[in-house]
Design brief:
This protein has 3 domains: 141 residues, 2-Layer Sandwich (Copper Amine Oxidase, Chain A, domain 1), CATH 3.30.457; 110 residues, Sandwich (Immunoglobulin-like), CATH 2.60.40.3500; 176 residues, 3-Layer(aba) Sandwich (Aminopeptidase), CATH 3.40.630. By secondary structure, it is of the alpha+beta class. Helix content is 21%, strand content 35%. A 6-stranded mixed beta sheet has the order 25-24-26-29-27-28, with helices on both faces. Strands 5-6-7-8-9 form a 5-stranded antiparallel beta sheet.
Length: 473
């Protein structure tokens, strides 16, 4: 196993969720390794534990001829290929990869005298690609030297025979007039507005269903529970085409007009906003502009209310980090006589992104700073601080001023300044940046981000960057 495969360990625990499946149903699942069914010993079975599909590690390692050592006394497993070593302990979420500690979503366990681990661990750490046939409950594993794949999940090719990367849709939700789709890669959606009945159609080319947690019926069609949604009556989704694969999502609207559609990628999520522009009045009450000569700075704590944002490795919500850091920035800016600071939220409420944009634009603000935390639970090795702006030279100047200070304050990896098309920095009319202070899904980043002292250092860095941009001493 090459070192690059070992590094993939940090993106382990791709969860295959089988809603409403019993233990017996899990036992009926199959494993296909390089087009050959893996014959399980009579005492070994695929098992579902807390909605994680667990697989006996010895079955796949024996088929791939990797060395596996079991220490009965310490209940530890060592997987070795040449000089590369992975160490796991039964009932412990801590593991070691090349002597580095990582935290697992679920600990290895002993069942029927076999050590079982999540399927993504088996596939990626053994150098395998994994696909999941949700209809037939079959796990397909493909080793590096065998690139064939089942028809349903095969990698499509373009007309000139160029290989196209097939993406997998793993989760779909609708909340706060936003359709949120989690994918394992970026897809350019094709969005159409159809009539009779009024509906928004979202097509995702070169995409199929992955470990979808929501239920699909026998026709591979699913629907979301939309109780309490004011503008949408139904959201349904299906595998609309095969060869090439295409997922279609249909959003049935309750009204014929006044819906504006925007979309953007945030991490591994495609977010499609359905903004109700008919008779719009923002719940954020914009005060009159400040005293003449004072600069207006809007601080935007991302997410809030029933939109928690991402989740940290210790199951904390991004919205709480965003608000905590933003309130510290507000506290420091209130001490600046030449600046008037205003917040898009100062409590656990949810203004939509459109409302945040309109709030800042109505104020004719000089600066807009949106504060966020990153998280990719499937890749806990991802870390660092990054700053986003959109095209305008004033926004780039603000990004430079804040980023160089924020890197020093956070003490995390410098992921750079990026020209990105997030709505809150794209549609605001002033110098605007979106800060991703660090990765809540990374152990070291989370520790720094949740530290009260580090938050104050970060807040001071943001304030000093704003002051530099505004030429305030």
């Amino acid at each position: 196993m090459k070192k690059v495969i070992l590094l993939m360990f940090l993106s382990l625990f791709f969860l295959i969720v089988l809603p409403d499946q019993s233990q017996a149903a899990a036992n009926q699942s199959k494993i296909i390794l390089d087009d050959q069914e893996v014959i399980l010993p009579s005492d070994v079975q695929i098992t579902v534990i807390n909605q994680h599909v667990m697989i006996p590690i010895r079955v796949v390692t024996e088929n791939l001829k990797f060395r596996v050592d079991w220490d009965q006394k310490s209940h530890s497993v060592k997987i070795q290929q040449n000089s590369n070593i992975i160490s796991l302990h039964v009932d412990q979420r801590e593991a070691k990869v090349a002597e580095k500690t990582v935290i697992l979503d679920i600990a290895p366990q002993i069942l029927n005298k076999s050590v079982v681990v999540p399927i993504r661990f088996v596939s990626e750490e053994m150098g395998l690609a994994v696909t999941w046939d949700n209809k037939d409950k079959i796990v397909y594993l493909t080793s590096n030297n065998n690139h064939s794949a089942p028809t349903e999940d095969s990698t499509p090719h373009s007309e000139n025979n160029e290989k196209v990367s097939l993406k997998h849709l793993n989760e779909i939700n609708f909340l706060n007039n936003q359709l949120v789709v989690r994918l394992d890669g970026k897809v350019t959606p094709i969005i159409s507005h159809l009539k009779d009945p009024q509906r928004i159609v979202v097509d995702l080319p070169d995409t199929t269903f992955g470990d979808l947690s929501q239920r699909l019926d026998s026709g591979s069609v699913g629907k979301l529970d939309l109780q309490g949604q004011p503008n949408v009556s139904e959201v349904r989704y299906s595998l609309f085409n095969r060869d090439p694969d295409q997922v279609r999502i249909v959003i049935e609207l309750k009204q014929a007009s006044g819906i504006e559609v925007n979309h953007e990628f945030i991490g591994d999520q495609l977010v499609i906003d359905l903004n109700d522009t008919s008779d719009f009045e923002s719940p954020i009450q914009a005060p009159s502009a400040g005293e003449q000569g004072r600069k207006i700075v809007v601080i935007d704590p991302g997410h809030g209310g029933n939109d928690p944002g991402t989740t940290s490795i210790s199951n904390k919500h991004e919205k709480d980090f965003n608000l905590a850091l933003s309130l510290k920035v507000q506290e420091l800016l209130l001490k600046e006589p030449e600046i008037e600071v205003l917040m898009t939220r100062d409590s656990d409420v949810y203004p939509t992104r459109t409302e945040r944009v309109l709030f800042a634009n109505k104020l004719n603000a000089d600066v807009f700073v949106s504060i966020h935390g990153n998280s990719v639970l499937e890749s806990p090795q991802a870390n660092g601080t990054e700053t986003h702006y959109y095209q305008r030279s004033s926004s780039r100047e603000l990004a430079n001023a804040i980023h160089k200070r924020l890197i020093k304050a956070m003490g995390l990896r410098d992921r750079g300044i990026k020209d990105s098309s997030f709505q809150v920095i794209r549609e605001t009319k002033m110098a605007a940046v979106l800060l991703e202070a660090g990765f809540l899904s990374n152990i070291s980043d989370e520790k720094a981000m949740l530290s009260n002292s580090v938050q104050y250092q970060a807040a001071q860095a943001i304030v000093d960057g704003i002051k530099e941009y505004l030429s305030i001493r």
